[in-house]
Amino acid sequence: MSRALELVFESAEQVKQEETKWLDKRYMQEKSVISSRMNGEVVLLCLTSGQFYGLGSTGSHIWDALREEHSIRELAQQLQQVYQVESDVCQQETAAFVHRLEQAGMLRSACEHRI
Amino acid sequence: MFAYQAFGLRIDSEVELPELIPWRQDSLHIEDEGQQAADLVIRLNDEAASGFKGRPFQFVFGERLVRISIPEVGVCSMEDGRLLQIAPEPMNHADSALLRMYILGTCMGSLLLQRGILPLHGSVLEQDGRAFAIVGESGAGKSTLAAELTRLGCRMLTDDVIPITWGITGEPCVQSTYPRQKLWQQTLDKLGRSNDQLQSIYGREQKFTVPVEASFHEGSLPLVGIIELIAENTSSDYTSAQIELEEVSLLERLQLLRQHTFRNSLLEPMKLSRWHFQQTVSLAEHVPIYRLRRGDQPYTADLLAEQLLLWMKGEVSNEQSTRAGFRVSGAG
Predict the structure, then answer these.
(1) Of B47, B45, B48, B98, nearest to B73 (Cα)?
(2) Does ipTM surpass 0.90 in this model?
(3) Helix, strand counts (H, E) of chain B
(4) Taking Cα atoms as reference points, which of B325, B319, B265, B254 lies closest to residue B295?
């Protein structure tokens, strides 16, 4: 019984660590992506794939910030200063957007830094 | 040395280029007193091939230099947008037409890129002092549609390379090139022209270069619309009774402009990807772009030209259909 409880406790600890990992993983614009502004919003061309992307206003904000290395936690904090969103929701949505950019080869992730 | 004006440039050439309009003192460089230097010089020079090891039709890139070897023509060396040197292969008579075709196409395209002038691929027509470009894949019917539009009174600025420059207020302009059209035999038949006096384009016996001096607009005009012509298969749901001119979204415009940039494979090796992206973003912001689908019926170009001209004159507005079934729709 106590052993089972221990296991649950351990995995909860793991989940917490995983959470910290994804929140603090750091990202930056990939060099092979060129960007410009078209009618106020960021447009991207990925030179390796030849694909074009258009970002909305929030996406443009995140992209501009990622000229320098940032974690999702930091990005979400910046966005919360501009938009009225709950912290959890903001982090999740930022993460979803960043992961989409990463999967499309637009971002590179730096080594994970633990706080 | 021959002197010409074309592509918005004064071109001095050792090779005679009868397609081009001779340079006139009063025409292009009014602000300059006295001797006006050429913007571009074309020379025959065997040195152009020295040390060249490229395979046929392979571009080789150097510092501000692009070279290519073209079988039956020679090695062409494009330098800094100002100098084209050709080390010619021993020529027989027929090859001089081929040489001119490459000078006015591939070589001019590369030289314009070196000068920071965006070259698109297609035809440009003038209506009421405004320029409309028609782009499309090879075989889409650009030149045929352009010919029909000139028959209806539009003047032509170019029929192959489209040099895009920027006016003093930041508006995109088209520079005229030279008064020639490339047409298929069937189009000539339709237009009631004989091919007796015309020059067959090398290796394309059924396609001819047609002088169009009478309906040529010389100089530059503001570009107000780009139309991508698409030939549809009859297997699609499209029916020829409906011709749709559909405005293209901003993001799609970038893809379309890249696709229809003349010799776009040169952009990356010439390190012009960023520059080109900026150019196309500015162009996409300034100029509406439309997609025009046509059926592959034997000949619909005259109907298409007629309807398109109504739209160019501003007589068909968005979300409207003409009686002929021509419809214009905005970008979603």
Answers:
(1) B98
(2) no
(3) 7, 20
(4) B325
Angstrom distance (rounded) from CA B180 to CA B101: 12
pTM of the model: 0.86
Q: Flag if B274 and A34 touch (Cβ within 8 Å).
A: yes
Residue B97 host element (H or E) = helix B95-102
Selection from B270, B265, B285, B223 nearest residue B116 by Cα: B270
d(CA A71, CA A22): 8
Dihedral of alpha carbons B24, B27, B31, B37, sign: negative
**DSSP-derived pairing of the beta strands B220-231 and B9-13:** unpaired
Minimum CA–CA partner of B265 in chain A? A50
Q: Does A36 touch chain B (CB under 8 A)?
A: yes
Cβ B273–A45 below 8 Å, yes or no?
Answer: yes
Write the pLDDT tens digit of every residue in B214-266. Answer: 899 999 999 999 999 988 765 445 454 567 888 999 999 999 999 999 999 99
- Cβ <8 Å between B273 and A34: yes
Q: How far is CA B189 from the centre of its chain?
A: 23
